[in-house]
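Re: your question from the hallway

Yes, I did run it. Sequences:
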Amino acid sequence: MQSKTLQQLADHVGGKIIGDPDIAINSVAGLDNAKAGDISFLTNAKYEPKLKGTQASAVIVAEEAKTDAALLVAEDPYYALQQIVVLMYGHRKNKPVGISDKAAVAETAIVGENCNICDFVTISDNVQIGVNCYFYPGVFIGPDTKIGNDCIFYPNAVVFNDVVIGDRVIVQSNASVGQDGYGFATHKGFHHKIPQIGKVILEDDVEIGSSCAIERGTLEDTTIGKGSKIGDLVAIGHGARIGPYCLLVPQVGISGSTTMGHHCVLGGQVGVTGHLQIGNMARVAAQSGVMTNIADGQSVLGSPAVDASKGRRAYTLIEHLPEFKKRIKALERKLDKLESQK
Amino acid sequence: MQSKTLQQLADHVGGKIIGDPDIAINSVAGLDNAKAGDISFLTNAKYEPKLKGTQASAVIVAEEAKTDAALLVAEDPYYALQQIVVLMYGHRKNKPVGISDKAAVAETAIVGENCNICDFVTISDNVQIGVNCYFYPGVFIGPDTKIGNDCIFYPNAVVFNDVVIGDRVIVQSNASVGQDGYGFATHKGFHHKIPQIGKVILEDDVEIGSSCAIERGTLEDTTIGKGSKIGDLVAIGHGARIGPYCLLVPQVGISGSTTMGHHCVLGGQVGVTGHLQIGNMARVAAQSGVMTNIADGQSVLGSPAVDASKGRRAYTLIEHLPEFKKRIKALERKLDKLESQK
Amino acid sequence: MQSKTLQQLADHVGGKIIGDPDIAINSVAGLDNAKAGDISFLTNAKYEPKLKGTQASAVIVAEEAKTDAALLVAEDPYYALQQIVVLMYGHRKNKPVGISDKAAVAETAIVGENCNICDFVTISDNVQIGVNCYFYPGVFIGPDTKIGNDCIFYPNAVVFNDVVIGDRVIVQSNASVGQDGYGFATHKGFHHKIPQIGKVILEDDVEIGSSCAIERGTLEDTTIGKGSKIGDLVAIGHGARIGPYCLLVPQVGISGSTTMGHHCVLGGQVGVTGHLQIGNMARVAAQSGVMTNIADGQSVLGSPAVDASKGRRAYTLIEHLPEFKKRIKALERKLDKLESQK
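Structure:
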């Protein structure tokens, strides 16, 4: 972590300072916890009241606001925060270890320059690895898998055979990529395992969260598109195709053969059934159960998921069902009475 | 992968050919992606329109249909597909490695003939292993566990002590079998851990998905019945008994002491509370929350789960609650008006 | 397992015997499965009918009851059961191995007395470990992490850098603690990774289940409070603070920056969105989706979660929506008829 002046930070993110540009900034913190020497940020208008009380020396904001702190006005404050955190802290430093004697690297594997392979890592036959990749302890890479440049595999991540991985891909701890899809042919009461001959393709800049399970395809490949970020404990079914730049938050489940467009955002614990088409920029609220196609740009919520425009109100009315029941009953009584009085 | 004539495939699955029996089939693909030389399949009437446009040289079908492709008519097309994929591609080949010097096999362990134990595998004291088993790197087998013949343990799978595993069992990567059940006695605000003295039993032909968590029992054993297939990221609570030939799709959670019959099918993200009895051949739709017993052959859906016959319609009506509210209000107004006019 | 007389057990738990105090008790079992020589327990009035038929020689109960078995009356029967199971079976014995030659322990790591570090374990630079800790094979401990006394790390558990772990903490197999939080700044359609500079703190007596994913904080730390027990496959988001003595059952998901009080109980598959405040002793029913703050002592259920007092009835009425619809329609018809007759 390196101390910077507010001016240096503003220059770095292309922002404007309101206040003293020479303030020394030592660290980054949220509005509640910040103290003198910290820079904080305001990215959600809801938290604006916290601006007044903050002890931060400076705050990244989208527009001028009342506070004792100096302001760093940036067009996209959250992106400015990201740039500043990278500048001051950097990404995780992975200790250079070269290729450990305690790793098991197949003779037929091709490992590019400047790769680090830690203890207890297995690199199987015919694996091809680009440059600058890091393999933490306990990682397994199956035969014939191809890996690009600048990838990181965290401890105990497992990548099966014939997987294709682009550049700058991150696979978090304990994740599985390319295990057999859940594919069985049930015949006379027995479930016969179908060899899963499709691959998994992780395109450039993909991140796979801890303990994710990304199944290989039955016949067609499972694909995670460029720049998509998959949270922890997500299950992706065989042959699913996740488009580029999607955000799948932890515990999402996508069933087999579903296709998703670009820039979709799926909230936590969302489930999507198989063979669906999810349009570009679709948004699915947390815990929704998606059972039908979603159009481009559509927002849905609920289980079963419905368009958010009507769904938000509909699902909150469940709470009022006992009252609805009472009112229906009262109406029936009154009406019976009226009819009998005729 | 081996090229076959359509006749060879038909003979293999006991099917009938409509078209040229001498066509060479090189690979298997879905109707959309198939090209000349491929065999494809139609197992869901919904996709019949795709038959016309397919580029496949042959298609496995249940009955005659209009298409330019040759047809392989089979009684159970999906099972025929499975047989053909096995014939042409085979199951995953696991490289013969014998018992690696880099593995840690206890002296008291008994390992049957033709087992392969890869690097970084731990086989603990008094483990008994049958013949033809394969242990991928990073696998841990705890003390006193018994394993049958022809089992496969994928990388970083963990099996605790005193687990009993049958023949032809597959445990996928990063799965845990036999960790402590979630059992605590809360006394005066403190949660006291109850030693979990039950075992886990995985009967013959069970498959456990990646990152599953199969708890050992508190007092009674946790059992997964013969031929049942457990998807990725499934949690099975302590003392649960899953019957034979069940299908539990990814992210299902079964709470402790619940008993399930045979041939049940549970969709993705289903949750079942504890101490319930789920009948034979029960079906539970994805994301359902089961809080009551399910009868033999019953289908349920929703959270809370209700019989599918009424549930399907009921849950889709949630969307219409705002309209219901309006209609109730309109009725009340009209009725008030009528009453005031009396 | 050691045989005891009923008197010895009663003395151990401070209970009262009704029946023969000299009965030999050899093992512990549930009411259904117990046989002669077993002690069983009754902790839920619902199962009282099972008391009569049990073959157990003795039963732990809260108050006198009719049965052929001897009774051990204890104030808190489930806690008495816990004490008896510990007395008779003990907690899991972890084989003393010292520090294995096949482990990789950094020279800069400080390892306290009487620690066991199994094969294929990685202890990274500057790790500090107290006394009596046990590291099963395949465990990874990242640099600068601090661990207290009497902790157990089960096979293939992964703890990242700068994590702070108290005394008597248990991390189950394949769990991840301290991986990067799901934090990205989306700018012009690209998702830029924010270095996650917060730590994870696991306080004393915490247990983390198998395949859990406990994210490190973006700026503030993620904390699991003293004595809290986290079930399998739970996801905890960056910066979440779980209070002391909470119970989070398997497959729960807590989003980032949510704060939880003490003694909360969350059922299976519960999801909680981010930046919420969950009060002390809050209770959340299984599969609920929490989108608003919860008050101290409040019980909620459903998705969206509502107060349990009204929610229980409300959610069970979903099943009756088709009937409600019919009744509304009938009312409308009748009313139209009445109006037309005026």
